[in-house]
Automatic annotation (TrEMBL), chain A:
It comes from Algoriphagus boritolerans DSM 17298 = JCM 18970. Keywords: Exonuclease, Hydrolase, Nuclease. Coiled coil: none annotated. Gene3D superfamilies: Ribonuclease H-like superfamily/Ribonuclease H (3.30.420.10). This is DNA polymerase-3 subunit epsilon. The lineage of its organism: Bacteria, Pseudomonadati, Bacteroidota, Cytophagia, Cytophagales.
From TrEMBL, chain B:
Residues 176-234, 241-300 form the CBS domain. It comes from the Bacteria. GO terms for molecular function: [protein-PII] uridylyltransferase activity. Keywords: CBS domain. Pfam families: CBS, cNMP_binding, DUF294, DUF294_C. Residues 18-121 form the Cyclic nucleotide-binding domain. This is CBS domain-containing protein.
Length: 223, 648
C-alpha cells in the first residue's frame, strides 16, 4: 500500500494522475547499476524566489539514459501564469511569450514526461516546491519520483559523504561555479532549458566521479 | 519543435564541417538526435575490430587519440580535438572499427545516429564530398583519393564568401568568337584585309574548300610581311600567311587552350571540330578575348618581359606575376598550368638577364661569343615547380675550350654568372644560402669538370655528396645549348649504370625525413628556434616526395622529366601495379605546393613554415591526408632497395 492512498482527494483523481502514479508504484531495485537508470534533468524559471507568491514561467528538461544526454528528449514549456509578470521575467526576456499552455496541459505534459525517472536538478528542492504548488489542485501533494540534487551530489563527491555543509562555502557550489570548475561552457544561463542542459552536463561528469569513488548502484547513488 | 537545448547543440555542430554544409532544417534534425556522452581520461569509446555502432562521433571538447594495434605495438594514427569528426566507418560501409579511440583528456562526445545522417549523405552532395574526400579523422588510414580532396576544397571554398577577382572561376565566361572570318588561299591580300576591316577583327583564317584551316594572317603579318616587305597587295594570301596553323579542340578546356597560346606565343588560336587542322574551323580565341576576361594574363606579362631589358621593369612585371599567381592558387587552377606559367615567366627573366649581361660583356670578350654554353636551373626551378621567388639554385655549363682560351673562358663565364645572378636578385629572387649559384666559380665549369663532379658524387656518395645530388640532379637547361645539358645527363646515367649501389644510397637519403605521422594535435611542430610551433612543410612533406620521385625516376632511367608531379605521373604509367599510389603522391605534391605558395604569399615569406592554427579545419585535414602517400612510398622504396639489409 502506497502513501498517497491515505490522502483523501477532494476531487476525483484524473486519469493522467492515476497513470502517473501507477508507473511510479514499483520502486527502482537498489542494485540497478547507474548506467541502467533513467534520469530527467530539469530546471524552472520563476517570477521570483518565494514559492508562496511566485509561479513558474518556463520549464526545461532533458533526459539521461545509458549515461548519455538524449537531446531528442529535450523539452521547453511555458505554463500560463496567474501572477503578473515580475522582475525575473523581465530579466529573462520572457515577456510576451506566445506559446504558453494552460496549467492543466502543463501538468499533464510534465507528468507523462517524467514517468518514473529519477529527477535531477540543481537546488532541485525549489523547483519541486514550485511544481508541487501547481500539482495541488490535481490531488497530488508531491512528486513520488526519487530525486537527486546536483548541489548535494557535488559536495558529497568533493568533500565525502559526511561533509558538514555549514562549513562549506556554498558560493563554490552555485551552478555557475560548478560549471566553471568542471569545464562546461555557459552561454545560455537563465533560461530553463539552458540551465537544465548545463545541469545535465554537470551531472554526467559527477556520475563519472561517483563511479571512481565506487558508487555504482542506485542505492549507493541515492543513499 | 526546437528549443534552447537543441539550438545549443546545433550551434556547436554548425561550426564544423560537414555540419556547416547543412541547411537549417537538416541541422535541427541532426541536433535533435544527438546523444551526449562524457568519457574520462583513459577510457575507450570504441575498440579496433569492434562492430560499428549505429552512431558516428564529433568531439565537443577534450582530446582523443585514434590508435592502431599492430604487431609492432600501438601506433597513434590520429589525434582528434574539438570539432573533429571520427568513427565514421559506421556511416560509410558499416565495417568494424579499424582503430581504437582512446580518451587522452576528459572528453565530451556527441554521437550522431547514422540513420539520421544517411539520408542527408544521399541528398547533400557537399556532405557526401566531405566524407568521400576523407576529411573525417581516422579515415586517412585507408588511402584516400586526394583528387576528391582537391575538388572538395574548391567546392567548400565557394561558400566562404571569397569573391576576390575570380579569374578563371567560370571558364565558360571566356568568350571567344565562333564566327571566324575566313577566305581561300588564292584570295588577294587586299580583299582579305578588306574583309578583316569590315568584320573589325585582327586576323583571318585561310581555309581550303572543306573549311579545313591551312593558314592564318594577322594584322601584324600585314604590317611586317606585306607593307614592310613591299609585296603587292594583289598577291594571294597564301604567299604571306603563317602555315601550318596550330589548332586545338574547343573541348580541350580553357587552361589547355591558354597554355598552348603561351607556349607557342600565339595571339590567335584556331579551334577546329576535332582539334587537328584536318577538320573544319569552328572558332578562334585571341589574346584579347583572354585579356578581357581575365584582366591580367601570363601572355601579357611574358610579352612585356620579352620587350624589356630594364631590370627595374622586369622586377615590376615579376611582382605582377605574383599577384596573378595568388588568384590562380586561390581558385584551384590546375597546378600543372600554374607551375608551367610561373616557370615560363621565371625562364624568360633568366633569358633576358643573360641577354643583358652578354651584351655588356660582348665588347671585352668578343672571342667568347661563339662558345657554346648552357644556363642550368636546379632545385625547384630546375624541376619547373618554383612558384614563389625562393632560393636561386643555378649554374653554368660551357663546352670544353682549347687550352689557349681556357683562362679567358673561366673569366668570361664567371662574369656572366655573376651578372645574371645580380639581375635575378634585383628581380626579387632570394640568394641560395648554400651558394649554389652561377655567381660561385665552383659551379661555373666546362663540361669535363661537370662530368667529373657527378662521377665523384656517384662513386663516393657521402652525406654531403647526396645533399648536392638532391639539388644538382634536377638540373634543367633554361637558356643556351640544350645539347650540352643532354650530354651531361647521358654521362650521369652511364655512371649510375656502372655503380648501381648508388641508388641504394640515394634511397637511404630519401628515407631521412619520415612523414609527419606522430602528430601532436595534428602536426609535428618545430620544437625550437624562431619557427617554434610551426610546421616545416618543405622539409617534412615536400622534400620526401621530391626525393622519392627523383630516386624512382632515376632507377627507371627516365630523362627529361623534372617536375615532381609529372615524375609521379610517369611512374604511374611505368608501374601499373603502383599506379594508384603514384598518382596520389603526385596530387599530394600539388596540394603541398599550393599550400606552401599560399602561405608564402600571405606571410610574405618563402612559405616553408606553416602555422597549423592559422589553417582551417578542412585545410588541416587536406594537408594531413596529403602525408599518407609518403609513408606508403617509403615502404615500397624500403623493400625495393633492400634498405633494411643495406643499413647494416
Amino acid at each position: 500500500m502506497s502513501w498517497w492512498e491515505f490522502w483523501k482527494p477532494k476531487t476525483e483523481r484524473l486519469d493522467f494522475i492515476r497513470d502517473f502514479l501507477e508507473v511510479n508504484q514499483d520502486p527502482i531495485p537498489s542494485i540497478r547499476t547507474i548506467s541502467q537508470l533513467k534520469f530527467t534533468v530539469l530546471d524552472t524559471e520563476t517570477t521570483g524566489l518565494e514559492p508562496a507568491k511566485d509561479s513558474i514561467l518556463s520549464f526545461g528538461a532533458v533526459k539521461i539514459s545509458d549515461l548519455k544526454i538524449q537531446i531528442s528528449t529535450a523539452v521547453e514549456w511555458y505554463p500560463k501564469s496567474a501572477h503578473s509578470i515580475g522582475k525575473a521575467a523581465q530579466i529573462h526576456g520572457l515577456v510576451g511569450i506566445s506559446n504558453q499552455i494552460s496549467i492543466e496541459e502543463f501538468i499533464k505534459k510534465v507528468l507523462s514526461y517524467l514517468g518514473n525517472s529519477i529527477i535531477v536538478g540543481h537546488h532541485i528542492g525549489f523547483d519541486l516546491e514550485m511544481i508541487g504548488k501547481l500539482l495541488k489542485p490535481f490531488g497530488l501533494e508531491q512528486l513520488p519520483n526519487p530525486m537527486i540534487d546536483t548541489l548535494d551530489l557535488a559536495i558529497r563527491l568533493e568533500h565525502g559523504p559526511r561533509a558538514d555543509q555549514r562549513r562549506i562555502s556554498m558560493g563554490a557550489y552555485s551552478l555557475d561555479e560548478l560549471c566553471k570548475r568542471y569545464g562546461i561552457d555557459r552561454d545560455d544561463r537563465h533560461t530553463a532549458g539552458g540551465d537544465a542542459f548545463l545541469t545535465a552536463q554537470l551531472f554526467i561528469r559527477l556520475l563519472k566521479l561517483a563511479e571512481k569513488k565506487g558508487i555504482r548502484t542506485y542505492k549507493e547513488l541515492i543513499r | 519543435m526546437s528549443n534552447v537545448i537543441v539550438n545549443r547543440v546545433a550551434e556547436f555542430l554548425k561550426r564544423f564541417p560537414p555540419f556547416s554544409f547543412l541547411g537549417k532544417e537538416d541541422l535541427t534534425r541532426v541536433a535533435q538526435s544527438v546523444e551526449i556522452q562524457f568519457l574520462e581520461k583513459g577510457e575507450m569509446l570504441f575498440r579496433q575490430g569492434e562492430a560499428a555502432r549505429p552512431h558516428f562521433f564529433i568531439l565537443k571538447e577534450g582530446l582523443i587519440q585514434l590508435v592502431e594495434n599492430s604487431p609492432k605495438g600501438e601506433q597513434i594514427r590520429e589525434v582528434c580535438d574539438e570539432g573533429d569528426v571520427f568513427g565514421v566507418l559506421a556511416l560509410l560501409g558499416k565495417r568494424p572499427y579499424v582503430l581504437t579511440s582512446k580518451v587522452i583528456e576528459n572528453s565530451l562526445i556527441y554521437a550522431i545516429p547514422v540513420a539520421v545522417f544517411e539520408k542527408i549523405l544521399e541528398e547533400n552532395s557537399r556532405v557526401a564530398l566531405f566524407f568521400a574526400a576523407g576529411f573525417a579523422a581516422g579515415q586517412v588510414v585507408v588511402r584516400q583519393d586526394l583528387s576528391q580532396g582537391q575538388k572538395a576544397r574548391g567546392e567548400f571554398k565557394k561558400d566562404s564568401g571569397d569573391h576576390s577577382l575570380l579569374i578563371f572561376s567560370d571558364q565558360s565566361a571566356v568568350i571567344f568568337s565562333e564566327k571566324v572570318v575566313c577566305c581561300s588561299p588564292d584570295t588577294a591580300i587586299q580583299s582579305a584585309a578588306k574583309e578583316m576591316a569590315q568584320a573589325q577583327v585582327s586576323s583571318i583564317v585561310i581555309c581550303d574548300e572543306n573549311k579545313f584551316p591551312v593558314g592564318i594572317l594577322t594584322d601584324k603579318d600585314l604590317r611586317t610581311r606585306v607593307l614592310a616587305a613591299g609585296i603587292s597587295p594583289e598577291n594571294p594570301v597564301s604567299q604571306v600567311m603563317t602555315s601550318p596553323v596550330i589548332t586545338r579542340n574547343k573541348q580541350d578546356g580553357f587552361s589547355n587552350l591558354y597554355l598552348t597560346m603561351i607556349r607557342h606565343r600565339l595571339h590567335h588560336l584556331v579551334l577546329t571540330e576535332d582539334g587537328s587542322d584536318q577538320s573544319a574551323v569552328c572558332g578562334i580565341i585571341s589574346d584579347h578575348d583572354v585579356f578581357l576576361s581575365m584582366g591580367n594574363s601570363p601572355a601579357v606579362l611574358i610579352h612585356a618581359l620579352m620587350n624589356t631589358l630594364e631590370v627595374v621593369e622586369m622586377r615590376k612585371i615579376r611582382d605582377r606575376a605574383e599577384q596573378m599567381l595568388g588568384y590562380y592558387l586561390e581558385n584551384e587552377v590546375s597546378m600543372e598550368f600554374v607551375a608551367s606559367v610561373m616557370t615560363e615567366i621565371n625562364d624568360v627573366i633568366i633569358r633576358q638577364a643573360l641577354e643583358i649581361v652578354k651584351d655588356q660583356l660582348k665588347a671585352v670578350y668578343p672571342e667568347m661569343m661563339g662558345i657554346r654554353f648552357c644556363f642550368l636551373s636546379m632545385g625547384s626551378e630546375g624541376r619547373a615547380e618554383q612558384l614563389l621567388r625562393t632560393d636561386l639554385d643555378n649554374a653554368i655549363l660551357y663546352e670544353d675550350v682549347a687550352q689557349n682560351l681556357k683562362s679567358r673562358a673561366v673569366e668570361y663565364f664567371q662574369k656572366l654568372g655573376e651578372g645574371v645572378v645580380e639581375v635575378l636578385l634585383a628581380c626579387g629572387f632570394d640568394p641560395c644560402p648554400g651558394k649554389i649559384m652561377a655567381s660561385n666559380p665552383e659551379w661555373v665549369q666546362p663540361l669535363t669538370v661537370w662530368k667529373s663532379y657527378f662521377t665523384e658524387w656517384i662513386l663516393h656518395p657521402s652525406p654531403e655528396a647526396l645533399m648536392k645530388v638532391s639539388i644538382f640532379f634536377d638540373f634543367r637547361s633554361v637558356a643556351g645549348s640544350k645539347a650540352l645539358a643532354e650530354e651531361l645527363s647521358a654521362h650521369i646515367y652511364q655512371e649510375i649504370g656502372k655503380k648501381q649501389v648508388f641508388l641504394n644510397f640515394l634511397a637511404l637519403n630519401a628515407m631521412k625525413n619520415p612523414p609527419p605521422l606522430g602528430f601532436f594535435r595534428d602536426f609535428v611542430l618545430e620544437r625550437s628556434g624562431e619557427n617554434r610551433d610551426q610546421f616545416d612543410i618543405k622539409l617534412r612533406a615536400m622534400l620526401p616526395l621530391t626525393d622519392l620521385a627523383r630516386l624512382l625516376v632515376l632507377s627507371h632511367q627516365i630523362v627529361g622529366i623534372n617536375n615532381t608531379f609529372r615524375r609521379f605521373e610517369k611512374l604511374a604509367e611505368l608501374e601499373p601495379a603502383n599506379a594508384e599510389l603514384f598518382s596520389q603522391a603526385g596530387k599530394a605534391y600539388e596540394i603541398l605546393m599550393r599550400m606552401r605558395a599560399l602561405e608564402g604569399m600571405q606571410s610574405k615569406s618563402n612559405g616553408r613554415f606553416i602555422k597549423p592554427r592559422s589553417l582551417g579545419k578542412l585545410q588541416r585535414q587536406l594537408l594531413k591526408n596529403a602525408f599518407v602517400p609518403i609513408s606508403e612510398l617509403q615502404e615500397i622504396v624500403n623493400i625495393r632497395f633492400q634498405l633494411d639489409y643495406f643499413r647494416r
